[in-house]
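User: For my dataset I need records formatted as: sequence, then structure tokens, nothing else. Please produce one.
Assistant:
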Amino acid sequence: MKLKKGIKLKERFLSIETPQECSGITLFRYAGTFLGMWNIEGCFILVDNIFIDSGNPNYSRENMRRYLATLDKKREWRILNTHMHEDHVGGNRLIQNELGAEIYSPESVQDFSFVSGLMDLVWGRPKMFCYSMIDRDEYITDKGRTIEVIPAPGHSPGHTVYRIIPDNIIYSGDAIPVPARKRYVTLGEDYVTELESLKKMLGYAEAGTRFISAHHGIVTDSVKLIQARIAGMTGVVHRVSEAASAGITGVEQIGREVFGKPEFLYSTLGNQLRCREDWTIQSILDSLEMTNI
């Protein structure tokens, strides 16, 4: 299945495959769109009886229901979420309803009212589901694989990645940012903490761990990708620090110094997109202030 281009309010794309290089792990690919002007693709996975994330709420429910109907409901199904953003938990309720899956999360939400009307069109607003907090350091699949729980905060306060053993694959959720020179963060995102988590991921990559990223898919060169993200984000932190040291105090002015002219889409719809440049600058300034205390 290929992503179809064109003007649309909701992208119902969903493909399901079991790539040869993933040792029997099922890969689900989905998408979101903004009136067809740009698309954001993502993925989640199924490892034996454990889903890791579940995608956005807008992908094809018909395709997913057909797939879930092929699974044995007598197995003990689970979902491990990396974090509670709408494009990672959007299929939780469907999978729970169809398979009786137990859901575990590293962070909690009361509801998904934080999803704006615009992002409801792009990703969808999840319906609430029953879940428990992550309660152990590793989970064992019904076929004997171990899924190791690895905290990787920054993108969200409790963001977590999962390493699949013995395959030595990390599903990294949003711990590997897009793009390399990250300009926009979501509300509550910690830029410097995210950078530190990236350095942790680099250690795994250099030791031979392979990666599946929620928005990069199967990563062919994990070391190169993560190094590029570290270099890009480190450069942003240094530029913000230099501007602040030079006496530039305004967040907007520092943003101009670091990133140049604001992009129209984000400068006008930042609140609706829940991604803003000034949140990036303020997050870095807050971290620098804490470091200097």
